[in-house]
């Protein structure tokens, strides 16, 4: 029982830190922001892919009053398969794209996600990148270099980490820090946590740090509690 309480406390502290990191990012302008929604679609992530399909509407619903959001789905799977869709602005469009994808075993390709995000934002600014994954099988230095490039371009990467892999946690934390984003763990058995985190970044991408602060003030009891702790 004590171990369970300690784990719960640790997760709450990590989410507290995530909310704090997001709120201290530079303010963005209003209007429709561009966000890249990137997911690991290898075999180990099948259950959470289905969960993300159910929760993806939060990315749009949370930003309606801020001018909305334009989202690009990005994923990798199988043997070096990497896909990026066009940008969509309706939840039905994103859900249709996600439902067409099935998870397939393979190695991680996070470097391709970051390089793609860099190239996209060089063409037209991307306000934020959301990445959801559970492991990392790539050279850390390469990922950190790409994350640093995104940091210079002011495109923060928000690394949402499923599970407890210690190596992935360390890498994801470095990527988020170098890009100017934030790291947050989640458990597939607690979909509300992932829902709140996705909505928080969507609000930031659409309206900036001030919009996120306003969102937190009227959000779920958990987000209100976290916000009170960091004030």
Gist of the model:
With 231 residues, the chain is of the alpha/beta class. The protein is 54% helix and 18% strand.
Q: Can you describe what's shown?
A:
The protein is of the alpha/beta class and about 230 residues long. The chain has one domain: 3-Layer(aba) Sandwich (Rossmann fold). The chain is about 55% helix and about 20% strand. A 6-stranded mixed β-sheet has the order 3-2-1-4-5-6, sandwiched between helices. Strand 2 and strand 3 form a beta hairpin. Helix 5 runs parallel beside helix 6 and helix 6 runs parallel beside helix 7. The longest helix has 27 residues. The C terminus is likely disordered.
CATH class: Alpha Beta
What is the residue-averaged pLDDT?
82
Shape, please? Answer: globular
Structural class: alpha/beta
Q: Report the biggest beta sheet as strand number plus sense, adding barrel if it closes.
A: 6 strands, mixed
